[in-house]
Every structure is written in C-alpha cells, then in structure tokens.
Amino acid sequence: HDAASEPLSPPPTGEDADDGGGPASEHDTAAADDSRRVGARYGLPGRFEQSDLEAEAVGDIFDTNEIFTRIAANADREFGHSTQLLFWSGLAAGLAISLSFLGMATVEGALGMSSAARITAALLYPLGFIFTVLGRYQLFTENTLTPVTLVLTWRASIPRLMRIWGLVLGANVLGTAFAGFYFSQTDILSGPAAEAGIEIGRHLLEMDWWTLFFKGTIAGWLVAGMVWLNHAARTATARLFIVFALMFTVAAADLAHCIVGSSEVLYLVFEGEATVLDYFWRFLAPAALGNTVGGVVLVGLLNYAQTSGEVQAEWQSLSWREWLLGTAPHEPAA
C-alpha cells in the first residue's frame, strides 16, 4: 500500500475547522494522514516519520519542512498548466490587483491628501490581494516563492523559472495597463479621486531608483511571506487575516509593489503626466528587481536553508546541465 499515492484530505472549513479541540479529532487525524502522505510523496523525513499519536497531537502545527513541501506540491500542480492558462490567470491578477489602487485613490480623494488619509486609504490596499490570493490568480510577486521551491529542490530548471516569471509578469502588467486605461478614460476616477490617483503615481516616480529598489525588497519579503504563511494556515479566515495584515503594512509603510504600482504609474501615463519610458525604467525595473530579491532571498532561500539538511536525494530529479540550461524531458512544458 503506497501512502504517497493517496489523495490529500481537503483543508477543513467552517464547522470542520479545529478551533482548539482534542488531539484525536477527525480534523487532526486527517492532518496527520496528510502530513505522512506529503512526506512520502516528496521524500521528506522528520515530522513525517512521527508516530500516529505524535502526529495527531501536532496535527495543526506545520513545521518548516512541511510548509516548504506543501508549497512545492502546489507549484508542481499549478505550473503544470499550459502557457495559455498561466497567461489568462496572470491577466486576471493584473486586473484584480488594480482594485487596490482604485480603493486607495477613492479614499484619499474623499479625505484629502494627508498622512492620516493615506493610512486610512491603506485599509483598502489589501482588496486586490484578497481578490487575487483567494481567487488563486497568478501574481508575479507570489511567484518569487512558489516556483522557486521547484528550482531549489531540483525539480524544475532555471530557464523554466525565467519563462514562468516573464509570462506572469507580462500578463500582470498588461492587466494593470487595461485597468489604468479604463480608469483614465472613464469617470470611475473623477474629481478629487482622479487627482489623488495622479498624486499616488507621481509619488512613486519622485523616488530615486535605489529607494524604489530597497522599498521593493521589503514589499517582496512581505508578499512572499504571505504565501508562506498562507500555506501554514488551515482556514480561509486565517488566510484572509494574513493577507490583510501584511498587505496593509506594504501600503502603510509606503513600500513599492511592482504590480500595484504598475496600475498607479500607468494611470499617470494615460493621464499624460508621465511617459512609458518613465514607467519601465524609473518604476518597474527597480520595483520588480527589489520584489524579486526580497521574495527569493529573504523568504525562499532562508526558509529552504532550514529544510535543506533534511531533504533527501530523491528530490534532485534534474542533472546539473538540465537544471542550469533547460527543460528536462519530464519537466512541464512552458
């Protein structure tokens, strides 16, 4: 009997979720079974080799090894999809994430451009992320962790990762461009809200290149950290709180997120206040690079370092040449 071949139990929702019950609940038993099956499937020791009693007792507490494995398993499934599906998902994410800009511009327009108004408006900044995360759309900054786990475990090549990043980033930018054009050419943002939208985009372009880069590293850290914590959570309520708290911090701390910022700066472009070159060089390049460094280094590599000593050789399914230079025969096609 192969435990790795059994389907994983779905996360509990509603009344099925465990809010502190005893260790022998059906929820804990399912979590323990999932723990062993995920470990068997991906070759991880440690937590997965515990006895039934031990596993049930900590059924809701996922260790670093298991969280990393769950992200890798999710990435393996998601990025087995076709290029077309990834593109449309990325386009939807770009459109949805623009709701963050719409919400902030509306509130700041109503309250006036002040520090207090900006903090209040930041309460609506998570709106686009909630839409994107719970809708399971492909957002570039989330992908600074998810597919990276496959590369770190030698299950996908670096060129494959670059193709995924390029496809998702391009689709996200296109989605924000559609949204920015629509906001600019209609009365969705008008009067004080339109003025606030212009000021938000102008504020980003007033930052120098390296300021945007460093602000981007922290934003990338928070977004990739959100992905990590969402895989550690077991309920939709917990995930919703994680998204709200971390993304509110991005806005309140005036950090740089390359996709939300794209909708803000491209709105400025369509209003005739900036050029396309301003957008690509003065904003997108430093913000996207900073987001990537923050997500890959501060979350991906650091958390992988906590598990790499326990990862078995079975994870390394690609050779050095396949990993560095291109897609192996059994890798998902881009």
Strand residues, percent: under 5%
Using only CA atoms, what is the Rg?
Answer: 21 Å
List segments where confidence is low: pLDDT < 50 over at least 5 consecutive residues. 1-25, 44-48
Mean pLDDT metric: 83
Head-to-tail CA distance between termini: 34 Å
CATH architecture of the largest domain: Up-down Bundle
- Give the topology string: H per helix, E per strand: HHHHHHHHHHHHHH
For the record, what CATH class of the largest domain applies? Mainly Alpha
Structural class: mainly alpha
Tally of separate domains = 2
> Which fold name is given in CATH as the topology of the largest domain?
Glycerol uptake facilitator protein
Q: How would you describe the shape?
A: globular
Residues in helix, %: 55-70%
Individual helix count:
14
Counting DSSP E segments of at least 2 residues, the number of strands comes to 0
Largest sheet: none
Task: Name the CATH superfamily assignment of the largest domain.
Answer: Glycerol uptake facilitator protein
